[in-house]
Design goal:
By secondary structure, this protein is α+β, with helices and mostly antiparallel strands. The protein has helices spanning 18-35, 41-63, 70-80, 120-128, 132-145, 149-159, 166-173, 179-199, 204-261, 281-306, 315-340, 427-434, 483-489, 523-535; strands at residues 4-9, 12-17, 67-68, 345-354, 362-367, 371-377, 383-389, 403-409, 415-424, 437-438, 441-444, 447-450, 455-456, 466-474, 478-482, 507-513, 516-520, 545-547. Strands 11-12-5-15-16-17-18 form a seven-stranded mixed β-sheet. A four-stranded mixed β-sheet has the order 4-9-14-8. Strand 1 (4-9) and strand 2 (12-17) form a beta hairpin. The longest helix is centred in the middle third of the chain and has 58 residues, at 204-261. The radius of gyration is 43 Å and the shape is elongated.
Length: 548
């Protein structure tokens, strides 16, 4: 049973046995005696005490004990070295301190003793084991070629701490922190004083003073940014937290709205929500909510920790948030992949109709403002009624416009073919989805009016449905195409047949020939083509028609 006492080393409280304390006290007295002749001996002794306190704390932590014994003190003093060892002959090259197994960890500091401006480049050079001149050249190259090195330098100046004490300087260079290292650093400082005196004499003194002025100005500016920036960062952090709070509230409100509409029939017409099967909509809505909200919550806690020095989030909460977020991504990806399988196969079928002929072999093509919808009615039997409407909420961004293709027919009657295309998980599903398409047109005498969109029946999901219309016109027939329809549905060649200054109701006349369709060019187009040929000395007659 040994007597223990409580001591304070560099602000750290230790429980130590009495004989160990006497050993340590004698060791510190020897150190004070050895370095007592130096001008800044108090700083040197303080640095050594800090290192000893750090080493003793590591010993207690590694061995899971609370009291320092004499063996611990002997271990620390052996690793640090003893002042008496400095009296040994230099040729023996005795290495003070036997801390061979200790891992030397470098720390990133600004080296203000080897600086051009703020010591950032030299500090980075020490950390990565390269000469400071190469890092300085790198910053200059970034300045000339990329232009952002000044901002990067100032940010690093604000972030990287300055190597103030000898311990900081030794950690910056990756040196062992023992008595020999302290002795070498002192000798380097004495040599550095001589070089500084040389700089301050002669013509170089003028340039040295200019450099010192620039350094002091920039350092003062950076310190100003550092002090003022704290208030700015806190204000910006508070604004960002408020913004994140609004986003979280908005996300929750949207989740409730979407969950409320998840089973509503109206949502089947809203793209891209009408891609999702009704039974999995709530799951995907919740997954999307968590994927968005969890990072916002994590960002909120990060701002609290960095800007406002709040306590760190418990590891259990961090782990829970990570699991929830990864789980939401995994579940969402699973259901999205499941929906994607319903686009695997494509199928189509075609309906062909013979149109009514006209005595003049002339047909007018219009794009209808109204739409035809199928309305299911129940009674004694199920029957269908077609209704015409001028607008519909069912047009909500769903890609349901049709394609129209003109062809010259070999027969004497016009033929209209409607091809319905859709995708599905297999061929049968794709055909069933294609049969859910409704598209209508009307023929009244010589006027053919096409609905501008097609519809999906009932609660049918969108499975890349398409409608392709092929209109076959007999030879020598004439088409009068509404300008609005020609603008939207036909090839760019028709632009030469359209007078942009004419009345929108103007009909473009197109003639069906054996070689294709022909339209008359506008006078403006003909004139421009003649000017083009004249400028380039092209001896070619300009045709007044366009064949397509």
């Amino acid at each position: 049973m040994n007597k223990t006492i409580i001591i304070n080393i560099s602000g750290v409280i230790f429980h130590i046995e009495e004989d160990a304390y006497e050993f340590l006290r004698s060791y510190m007295n020897d150190i004070k005696g050895h370095f007592g002749g130096y001008k800044d001996h108090l700083e040197i002794v303080t640095d050594i005490e800090n290192r000893i306190a750090e080493m003793l704390s590591e010993l207690l932590l590694n061995e899971s004990k609370q009291v320092i014994v004499i063996a611990d003190v002997a271990n620390v003093t052996q690793r640090m070295g003893k002042p008496a060892d400095f009296d040994m002959p230099e040729e023996e090259d005795y290495d003070l301190g036997n801390d061979k197994s200790a891992t030397v960890l470098k720390k990133l500091y600004r080296d203000t003793e080897d600086k051009v401006i703020g010591g950032v480049c030299s500090g980075i050079g020490h950390y990565f084991g390269i000469q400071p001149k190469w890092t300085r050249i790198g910053f200059l190259l970034m300045l000339f070629f990329f232009g952002f090195s000044v901002l990067a330098y100032l940010l690093l100046w604000m972030i990287i701490p300055k190597a103030k004490t000898r311990t900081d300087k030794m950690e910056m260079k990756g040196e062992k922190i023992n008595l020999q290292a302290f002795q070498k650093n002192i000798e380097k400082e004495l040599k550095g004083i001589g070089s500084t005196l040389k700089k301050s004499s002669g013509i170089s003194a003028f340039f040295y003073k200019i450099g010192a002025f620039i350094q002091n100005f920039i350092e003062g500016f950076v310190n100003f940014l550092g002090n003022t920036g704290k208030m700015i960062f806190k204000f910006l952090g508070l604004c960002l937290m408020i913004f994140i709070g609004f986003l979280l509230i908005a996300a929750f409100v949207f989740l409730m709205v979407f969950l409320g509409y998840a089973g509503n029939t109206d949502i089947a017409t809203i793209f891209p929500l009408n891609i999702i099967n009704q039974e999995i909509r709530p799951v995907l809505f919740i997954c999307a909510f968590l994927i968005i909200v969890v990072p916002l919550i994590a960002l909120l806690f990060l701002i609290l920790r960095i800007i406002f020095k709040s306590k760190t989030i418990p590891n259990s909460l961090n782990l829970s948030l990570a699991i929830v977020w990864i789980g939401a991504i995994a579940i969402g990806a699973f259901f999205i992949a499941k929906i994607a399988t319903e686009f695997k196969e494509e199928a189509s079928y075609t309906e062909t109709t013979t149109l009514n002929t006209t005595s003049s072999d002339s047909y007018i093509l219009r794009l209808g403002d109204e739409r035809t919808l199928r309305e299911e009615q129940s009674g004694k039997g199920l029957n269908t009624k077609l209704i015409r409407i001028s607008g519909s909420d069912r047009d909500f961004d769903t890609p349901n416009e049709f394609d129209l293709e003109l062809k010259v027919s070999d027969g004497d009657t016009p033929i209209l073919s409607k091809t319905y295309i859709a995708r599905g998980s297999n061929f049968n599903d794709a055909i069933n989805n294609a049969h859910q398409i409704d598209y209508y047109y009307q023929q009244k005498d010589s006027v053919l009016t096409f609905d501008h969109r097609f519809d999906l029946r009932g609660l049918s999901l969108w499975r890349s449905q398409q409608v392709k219309i092929k209109l076959q016109i007999p030879v020598n027939s004439t088409l009068l195409i509404e300008k609005r329809m020609a603008d939207r549905l036909f090839w760019h060649q028709l632009n030469k047949c359209i007078d942009r200054e004419a009345n929108p109701e103007t009909l473009i006349r197109v003639k069906a020939t054996k070689n294709g369709f022909v339209c008359n060019k506008t006078p403006e187009v003909i004139e421009k083509e003649k000017e083009y040929n004249a400028e380039r000395n092209i001896d070619e007659e300009v045709s007044d028609t366009v064949l397509f």
